[in-house]
Amino acid sequence: MKNKGTRWLTALLAAALLLTAVPCAYAQGAPALQEMEITAKRLKVRHHPGVDDVPAVTELKRGDRVTLLGISGKWSYVKWGKGGHDEQGYVFSRHIKPAGALLYFATEEVNVRSEANSSSRILGVLQAGEAVKFIKKAKGWVQVEYNGASGFVYGKYLTKNRAKSYLGSRLAQELGRNNIKDIEYMHGGRAGIHGLQSSADKPVLAVAYGLKTAYRENLMRVMVYEYATEAEAVQVRRAVLAQEGTPGWHTVYFQKGNTVCTLDWSYGERTTDREERLYQHAFDTLSAAYGEFIPKN
């Protein structure tokens, strides 16, 4: 496995994140979306994150409303439009702000209670990444809208940053939070994993975990998502396996029921023992969760 490594291209990651499925077991949470408002006088929209080598495809103006679909580094993936003619693209995150109802996201599994105290009745449980509408703060607690009613969640278990909220997911805990370098997420999109498109007419909530390595060229990334049915997951898996692998990349696919998971590793001559141990740990974690692996290359 010690071949010359290749650099992970941002565009490839963006394509891998754009799936069409339903929220995954390890990225639990209702797919509530935050409405945003453009704050810059004119804001360029691009097909992929980046400025120097990614031309702008259009511009939005101050006051325009968009829906936040994902986060990739300093970039936000948004959609806008009316009448079923939505357009999508990337904008610089610092030039948008929340508009309308503010969403908070659970940072780990946490109870929703009927009152702002730990002895009140439990109305339900939020999973890491799950969204609720903010009402107001109440002495360390946050009053939220939950299943159409009012409830309370202890404030330290909520965040306005959806990407960071997935650090509390079960998968992040099993991979080891200290091993995670970055988290990106994407909701919706049209392109499937590794260039394939799902036939399911449902949105996706895909979460990518970037794992720390000793040098930049050697990256590991874990993605987990669910398709609408097991038959569709099998169909997509077979189509992916029929494709040629990416030189310099080792990809392993796992499938259990309608859930599919990928582990990508860009390896090279400078791969260290620590990196190989991290890969083995990630492999064992995913294998335990999703059963027998399917090697790609």
What sequence of helices (H) and strands (E) makes up the elements?
A: HEEEEEEEEEEEEEEHHEEEHEEHE
Q: What Rg, in angstroms, do the CA atoms define?
A: 20 Å
Low-confidence stretches: 1-30, 189-200
General shape: globular
Q: What is the domain total for the residues?
A: 3
The average pLDDT value, as a whole number, equals 77
Helix residue percentage = 10-25%
Largest sheet composition: 11 strands, antiparallel
CATH architecture tag of the largest domain: 3-Layer(aba) Sandwich
Q: Count the DSSP helices.
A: 5
Strand coverage percent: 35-45%
Report the count of strand segments: 20
Structural category: alpha+beta
CATH class of the largest domain: Alpha Beta
From the structure above, extract its key features.
single chain; alpha+beta; Protein Transport Mog1p, Chain A; SH3 type barrels; 5-stranded antiparallel sheet; 5 helices; 16% helix; disordered N terminus
Verbal overview:
The chain has 297 residues and is an alpha+beta fold. The chain has three domains: 10-27 and 169-295, 3-Layer(aba) Sandwich (Protein Transport Mog1p, Chain A), CATH 3.40.1000; 35-98, SH3 Domains (SH3 type barrels, Roll), CATH 2.30.30.40; 103-160, SH3 Domains (SH3 type barrels, Roll), CATH 2.30.30. It is built from five helices and 20 strands. The strands form four sheets. Strands 1, 4, 5, 6, 7, 15, 16, 17, 18, 19 and 20 form an eleven-stranded antiparallel beta sheet that branches. Strand 4 and strand 5 (75-80) form a beta hairpin. It is globular. The termini are close together. Mean pLDDT is 77; it is low at 1-30 and 189-200.
